[in-house]
Amino acid sequence: MAEPKLKDLGERVGIVLHRPRLPENIGACARAMWNMGLSRLLLVGPVRWDEPAMYRMATREAAHVIRDVEVYDSLEAAL
Hints:
Layout: H1 6-12, E1 14-18, H2 23-35, E2 40-44, H3 51-58, H4 63-67, E3 70-72, H5 75-78
Parallel strand pairs: 1-2, 2-3
Helix pairs in contact: 2-3
């Protein structure tokens, strides 16, 4: 059996934030994900939605993570 490539894993793995309160934390998470080769960010019931604040913390390189974020009403729906 062939070893999975790191890029393939990065496309299959998602990071879930449950009820994140600060949009800056969402952006910082996106930046950290980009640094690790991950791109699928799932948010469950974000408390505050402020895209400019998210993009500021994500930086230009990780902007695609914010742009493609998935938002859900419940943890069950996200998983």
